[in-house]
Write a structure and sequence with these properties.
PH-like_dom_sf, ARM-type_fold, 9 strands, PH-domain like, two-stranded antiparallel ribbon, 37 helices, seven-stranded antiparallel β-sheet, alpha+beta, Serine/threonine-protein phosphatase 4 regulatory subunit 3, single chain
Length: 827
């Protein structure tokens, strides 16, 4: 079994100079043939996959930090770190690294080797070490020049760091700082600023541990106050000692933890406020400082989490009614910062952290905090709640469902969140947007668990629609009331903030329509929600009107007949068409959104809505000519009526469809759906389209509905209307269809044509578009001078292609023509 001493976390430094956790595993060292050398290997403890494979390069600088960290750079701007669970494991790997590089394991860093000129390298190798001038007032300028000249060279920088560390030089410099400050020696203070800043850029953990110790850190900050570029020194120490005060909301008994918190705050302050912004060339020189802060935070969270007494007292005071508001304010701010620190933990440790908080009762505590009047406290509680929802929404859902069995709806946690969203005083509703995102996560079925004996989705959605949905929709219902029955429902408040809130609510309701099933359907139909939403299409704010349209569009997109009957019963297209007409000729998003909604109804052939729109609103829409959407809807409607009036024709049309080659429905145009649009590609010349089983049908029974149909077509064409159709046949040009009818249509279809009108072997003589073609091949509908002027007009290219195909078929098979073709040719 793998030794826990070798258990490590692997970190990499990202572009923002923050450490990213790459996983937890067990480290080992050994010779890797592919890398031709001894390497460090880390395999994941979860699945054994390789997290890290890094050759121990003799020229790479490895640093040992805080007894359990090893940090190094594999390439420029690519830093790695191993954080060991135990010090013993860190020591073992460190000894192995030092053994490969030929170094003494007692050092905390192995020496850098960089590309420099041969002369410079020879000089550095020949000199045993760097000799520092004595730490005296009159030698500070020499020391500042030495530090500045050593920074560009990694070798000299390393020698300078060793010299400063071995001679205890930092404490001597800080003593000199106190002397200069007492003497008000501004020149010496300026030199000390340059020296201390240079020591920071040496990027060495051992020096940081001395500089950030309790007795030294304030003097280090004092040195950095005297920037030569400023006329007056900064007052950082005054801020840290007088203004910034450590608020110990819960007494911390562990002195080591207290010291670690103080140290982390001050080092963070140095990084953010005291040190000047590093240049592009200096950024990498402060990587160790970033690491120092990061691992300090990880250590603080771990120590607090292990202190059970501390957490117990924290949550007891949070939920105690006797706790005053100021004290609770401090407690919740501490808890917020505590949760923020937890984001530095690796995933499994973060799981344990939030599980600990849950067991301590963080959700009941948040419920108390959200009931307070202090806006800042509620804001902090919202941030804590967001951490919990993002970590584990199921935990929050389980809590609120259990809570509903004991408390009234008004004080449920989720209803408090909704109320704070509704009552957000920010003109831009920043807090409401954040809370709406959290609610959306909670009601999202995608992150709900489903087990054999318990379905979270069903239980929680039933709870939400019973106890919470009325709170969420309250602003919508309140702002679309029917004060005067004669005027109908009106939109009361149309100010920007109210409209923005309603837009957020509509966005969440639209999400529910998409992802919930019968719950939202029952709610919308029973509460007549869509009617009230469509009132908002009259808003002066375009974003709100578009939200209302989007809500209806999602409902129509479900193609649910329950919704469709609800829309038709209440004539809910009326406000949409009114908004479309009021928009006029403006070509904007409102215009496009409404047209797209009707286009969807047409393309998807939603029959009930098509009939409803044409029967009730055609007069208002018939003059819209710049798009063909509404005329297409009218055509759909007429086709539906024809099929209803002639069931035999409809059944014949289905037969034709079933025995023709199937094509993608999206490529079919309206005119192609008519029964008479047969394509020459689908048939052999002279071959009828009706299967043999239909030959016994009576010609008179079948031709009678066809004749009536053609007469109705004639009446429609008398109004100068022309039906254009396009056929999308794969591999062929699209033949254009043009239909025209004369007074002798019926005669042309029923009487046999003259032989002179037939063109044998040409695709221009298709079979009859009715079943009668089987029983009487001579009744094929073709062009005649006195009758049907032109039923199908094909391009010439198609004639040539079909002739060539026929010739090829004859040559390849060497068979006589089929009987149907013989009869056609002989006719």
């Amino acid at each position: 079994m793998t030794d826990t001493r070798r258990r490590v976390k692997v970190y990499t430094l990202n572009e923002d100079r923050q450490w990213d956790d790459r996983g937890t595993g067990h480290v080992s060292s050994g010779y890797v043939e592919r890398l031709k050398g001894t390497s460090l290997l880390v395999r994941a403890e979860s699945d054994g996959s390789l997290l890290l494979e890094s050759k121990i390069n003799p020229n790479t600088a490895y640093q040992k930090q805080q007894d359990t960290l090893i940090v190094w750079s594999e390439a420029e701007n690519y830093d790695l770190a191993l954080s060991f669970q135990e010090k013993a494991g860190c020591d073992e790997i460190w000894e192995k690294i030092c053994q490969v590089q030929g170094k003494d394991p007692s050092v905390d860093i192995t020496q850098d080797v960089v590309d420099e000129s041969e002369e410079e390298r020879f000089d550095d190798m020949s000199s045993p070490g760097l000799e520092l001038p004595p730490c005296e007032l009159n030698r500070l300028e020499d020391l500042a020049e030495l530090v500045a000249s050593s920074l560009p060279s990694p070798l000299r920088r390393e020698k300078l760091a060793l010299a400063v560390e071995n001679e205890g030089y930092i404490r001597k410099l800080l003593e000199m700082f106190r002397v200069c400050e007492d003497l008000e020696n501004r020149e010496g203070l300026h030199h000390l600023y340059e020296i201390i800043k240079g020591i920071f850029l040496l990027n060495r953990t051992a020096l940081f541990e001395v500089m950030f110790s309790e007795e030294c850190i304030m003097d280090v900050i004092g040195c950095l106050e005297f920037d030569p570029a400023l006329s007056q020194p900064r007052r950082h120490r005054e801020f840290l000692t007088k203004t910034a005060r450590f608020k110990e909301v819960i007494p911390i008994s562990d002195p080591e933890l207290r010291q670690k918190i103080h140290q982390t705050y001050r080092v963070q302050y140095i990084q953010d406020m005291v040190l000047p912004t590093p240049s592009v060339f200096e950024e990498n020189m402060l990587s160790t400082l970033h690491s120092f802060i990061f691992f300090n935070k990880v250590e603080i969270v771990g120590m607090l989490q292990d202190d059970e007494k501390f957490l117990t007292d924290l949550f007891a005071q949070l939920t105690d009614e006797a706790t005053d508001d100021d004290k609770r304010h401090e407690l919740v701010n501490f808890l917020k910062e505590f949760c923020a620190f937890s984001q530095t933990l690796q995933p499994q440790n973060r799981d344990a952290f939030f599980k600990t908080l849950s067991n301590m009762g963080i959700l009941p505590a948040l419920e108390v905090i959200l009931g307070m009047d202090d806006v800042q406290v509620r804001g902090a509680a919202t941030d804590i709640f967001s951490y919990l929802v993002e970590y584990n929404p199921s935990m929050v859902r389980e809590f609120v469902m259990q809570e509903s069995q004991q408390n009234d709806d008004d004080i449920l946690l989720i209803n408090l969140i909704i109320e704070h969203m509704i009552c957000d005083t920010d003109p831009e509703l920043g807090g409401a947007v954040q809370l709406m995102g959290l609610l959306r996560t909670l009601v999202d079925p995608e992150n709900m668990l489903a087990t054999a004996n318990k379905t979270e989705k069903t239980e929680f959605l039933s709870f939400f629609y019973k106890h919470c949905m009325h709170v969420l929709s309250a602003p919508l219902l309140a702002n679309t009331t029917e004060e005067k029955p004669s005027k109908g429902i009106e939109y009361l408040r149309d100010d920007f903030q109210t409209s923005q809130l309603l837009a957020l609510i509509l966005e969440l309701l639209t999400f529910c329509v998409e992802h919930h099933t019968y719950h939202i359907k029952n709610y919308i139909i029973n509460k007549d929600i869509l009617r009230r939403v469509l009132v908002l299409t009259a808003s002066q704010h375009a974003f709100l009107a578009l939200c209302a349209l989007r809500f209806m569009r999602r409902i129509i997109g479900l193609k649910d007949e329950f919704y469709n009957r609800y829309i038709m019963r209440n004539f809910l297209f009326e406000p949409v068409i009114k908004a479309f007409l009021n928009n006029g000729s403006r070509y904007n998003l409102m215009n496009s959104a409404i047209i797209e909604m009707f286009e969807y109804v047409r393309v998807e052939d939603v029959k009930s809505l098509t009939a409803h729109i044409v029967e009730n609103y055609w007069k208002a829409l018939e003059d819209v000519n710049y798009v063909q959407t509404f005329k297409g809807l009218k055509l759909r409607y007429e086709q539906q009526r024809e099929r209803q009036d002639n069931p035999k024709l409809d059944s014949m049309r289905s037969i034709l469809r079933n025995h023709r080659f199937r094509r993608d429905a999206r490529t079919l145009e309206d005119e192609e759906e008519m029964w008479f649009n047969t394509d020459e590609d689908d048939l052999e010349d002279g071959e009828a389209v009706v299967p043999p089983s239909d030959k016994m049908k009576s010609e008179e029974d079948l031709m009678e509905p066809i004749s009536k149909f053609m007469e109705r077509k004639k009446m429609k064409d008398s109004d100068d209307k022309e039906v254009l159709g396009k056929s999308s046949l794969s591999g062929r040009q699209n033949p254009s269809f043009k239909l025209s009818f004369s007074g002798s249509t019926k005669t042309s279809l029923s009487s046999p044509p003259s032989s002179a009108s037939l063109n044998p072997g040409s695709p221009g003589s298709p079979g009859s578009p009715g079943p009668g073609a089987r029983s009487s091949p001579s009744t094929t509908a073709v062009t005649t001078k006195g009758g049907l002027v032109g039923l199908v007009d094909y391009p010439d290219d198609d004639d040539d292609e079909d002739e060539e195909e026929e010739e090829e078929d004859v040559e390849s098979k060497e068979d006589p023509l089929p009987p149907s073709k013989k009869s056609k040719l002989s006719s």
